[in-house]
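TL;DR need structure tokens for one chain.
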Amino acid sequence: MKPKGCILWEGPSRLDGAPLVVIGTMATANRKTGPMAQVWFLRSDIDPVSAVKAGLDRSICGACPLRGSDGFKGRACYVTVHQAPLGVYRAFKRGSYVKGRLPAGLLVRLGAYGDPGAVPIRIIRSILAGSAGHTGYTHLWRWRPSLRGLVQASVETLGDALEAWNAGWSTFRLTDGPPLGLVGERTCPASRGVSCAMCKACSGASSRCIPAHGTGRKFV
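>> reply
TL;DR here they are.
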């Protein structure tokens, strides 16, 4: 039976030194992304639900404003940690994954959970080597300029978007308004049923925005 995933790296978080594991899985039921290998950035010593409750998810997410301020209180992140992230963590603890690499020729989604800025850039480049394309996002764009051109800077305000654009980043912006003509920003086509695997625009090369519906937050 073919393995469903592999351990791509284990080591200390670049954010706080906590132990992390990077896992790649080859299959997904996520219709929004489509058929893409999924890369998960997880604490290796604590399950993701407990990590969020204790505020220890900062090891993989940094100061992302969607994390919430007190465990799950105020959390606006779209990732439901008690579902796929918890399942991947439990499979890791069961020994279901061995160290390896993703097969060449796959489309890769960096950060099905967690931020690629939490690990060394050489690990990100290694994961993407031989891929057929990728998507990725980081809220750590101010502190991880080496990721520029590989992933989108995740922003929630026009001020942050302008700062990121001036620094040479392409952005993915949550907004309550229309896309801006600046730097060719366009609306994410997911609302039209176009999957990430079909679009592949969020690879650090062009800016996109998406309505902030359902986040419980207001953005400008």
